[in-house]
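Annex B.
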Amino acid sequence: MEISSKENTCFFSNNTVLPVDQSSFKSESSTSKEKRSCCGGIKIFLGALSFVYFAKALSGSYLKSTITQIERRFDIPSSLVGVIDGSFEIGNLLIIILVSYFGAKLHRPRIIGAGCLIMSAGTFLIAMPQFFMERYRYERFPSTINSTVSISPCLQDKSQTPLSALEKSQTKMSAGCEKEAGSSMWIYVLLGNLLRGIGETPIQPLGITYIDDYAVEENAALYIGCVQTAAIIGPIFGFLLGSLCAKLYVDIGFVDLDSVTISPKDVQWVGAWWLGYLIAGVISVLAGIPFWFLPKHLPKPESRKNSSTSSEQSKFIIEENKEHTSYQQQAKLAQMAKPDYFLPSLKNLFGNPVYILYLCASIIQFNSLIGMVTYKPKYIEQQYGQTSSKTNFVIGLINIPAVAFGIFSGGLIMKKFRIGVLGAAKLSFGSSFFGYLLLLSLFAMGCENSDVAGLTVSYHGTKPMTDYKQALFSECNSGCSCSKNDWDPICGENGVTYVSACLAGCRASNGSGKNTVFFNCSCVGSFESSQSSSAVVGPCQKGKECPKMFLYFLVISVITSYTLSVGGTPGYILLLRCIKPHLKSFALGIYTLAIRVLAGIPAPVYFGVAIDTSCLKWGSKRCGGRGACRLYDSNALRYVYLGLTLVLGTVSIFFSVAVLWVLRKRSSPQDETLSANGERGTCGTKSRKESFVNSDQLIQSTYWPEKETRL
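Solute carrier organic anion transporter family member: predicted structure tokens.
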């Protein structure tokens, strides 16, 4: 049974023992008791909401950390992985309008609890394909697998291979094709992420407004700051969890690990990506439990009852009391949904030039940041030859704390120097300008392509032919029956990587598994300055300068992350200060909607398509068709990834300049805050002190869409 605010007040006051003849003491004691009960209830809600923010941030960042693992496990290109990543935003958009517009009239804690269950169901669904798919198969020549059969890599005559082994291999391949042809298990990952987006939707709008409605006014900013802090801590643990799971083999617990012949450094390695989703799903379930036991309403503090002005969000929440009937509530909701109420607000909002220009700048900048963050693990792995485990560890332990510190610094600067609207616009512009300027230096901090015979160098040590497919074959391997589709790299004694032992012309091998050594490799011996003709399993390491370049990249990346994050809070304050007070919630809803539709969904897709253009060697599926990329052109990848990020960032800076120009045009010389006509929907006149006080309360409440994963 739901309890109203007045009933709650009475309930908590009834247990107080009071003298009959001291009415003033009775009033003071009742107020004190109500304050304690209110604070207790809101603090329980605060703890539960902080845990939910931690859970959703952890699962979201863990998805980012498994992008390359999912790509390899399901043998799909980066563009398709981008679609999977964007499905979260699609799920969010399906119900965000309904939740934001009508959710305040319902039982907000229980809606959040239901969202947590849906979010956990989606997380579990992402992991399910692992239990229904066959075991992961990587490309390996039979001689590198633990076997008593000795097979020459260079098959001059297929009769050298025992018939039983060939038949067994063909039978397995045929069965695998039949199973693979009828299933596209990556769809379950997409649907699971879509479900995650649906479940996450009510957490932010309903949770924050619940705190704003029932917390003491001076404590609201602090409470919201605690929630956002939890949202920053979540990604740290998410990427660290991704680092741990990437070290474990994908089929751990299902296969004998001694039979695995690849290591985490191999491009075909797939970690236990599914394990982290099971852990994140359990955390989401636990996070949702407390909300089912929290009340619909809490006692409002005395300061809120006596104040003539309510919180901005409360203007959109219709107060409920015992006299209202359900029919009247439905009538008010229907009135809010009428076009007569909605369209004028929309027209007023889009008639505000500062809002429109800042919205355009944010959309383009988030396209840049979302694309950069989504494929940052892939870029580090491919450009610097790092393992997935080390990449996730570095991002979680270095980049994300830099983002958190940057957001905090932006709020601190706003408070310390009492910055107004125009100053906030300048600070936001400055952070973006210098951030992208630092990003420009990363072009000089890349690694050269690894020497791969037939792809990046010729079999004689010179540059390859234009047609990479034809270049895979040479005189040294002309007598071998090799496939150009295989990817089973070996490292020759000459420091050159060969696509397979067959294409290296190897005619003998010794050992098994990871310890296999190939001998009499004609292509290794024919390479200029070659002293031997032997090779070992796995690709050769990147150049000697690459570890140093990776260190430089990390330093600049951390500084860039911090610099870009400093402008987040000032930009958010600018957004809020240039809108009529009664349109703030609506403006933030439109802002979030635009970011998700025009940045969150398309950015991972077209970044993935662009990255796919830099692929040199595609993998092949067992049943034919193109799989995941095995080798990228390092130079092309660097220019595509960083170039696209910088181009988008530069365009957003031009819009930021336009915002500054409009603000300067409308500001007075004596004050940096705007003085404008309310009828035109521009910023209202405020004193510097008033603007500072208001911005101080919003410093800790800054929210970016998926802010916790923007590195």
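The mean pLDDT is 77. DSSP finds 26 helices and seven strands in the chain. Further annotation is deferred to the next reporting cycle.
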